[in-house]
Fold:
Amino acid sequence: MALLDGNALAGRLDDLLGWDATGSEVRCTHCGLRGLLATAAVYASAMGAVVRCRSCDAVLLTVVDAPDGRSWLGMPGLSAMELRRG
Ligand SMILES: [Zn+2]
Structure:
């Protein structure tokens, strides 16, 4: 797996969610660190990506691309994510 930063997910999240979530502030459930998703550690592979907290290494978010064309977005370590209206 290649270690990247959160910016590597910009296009992928835009495809899945319809907006680029890497500019959103997120909060780690485990240590409480707040920061832009773009600054998190991203481990990418052909199957998807695992996003980890830069402070405590907890898994914040996962993206798995299944062979059947579906994608699965998990957010096991996010206690909050900023969403912008309008
Ligand atoms: Zn953390």
About this structure: The beta strands are 2-5, 25-28, 34-36, 41-45, 48-52, 59-65, 71-74, 78-81. Residues 28, 30-31, 33, 53, 55-56, 58 surround zinc ion (CB under 6 Å). The chain has one domain: 2-81. The chain is about 10% helix and 40% strand.
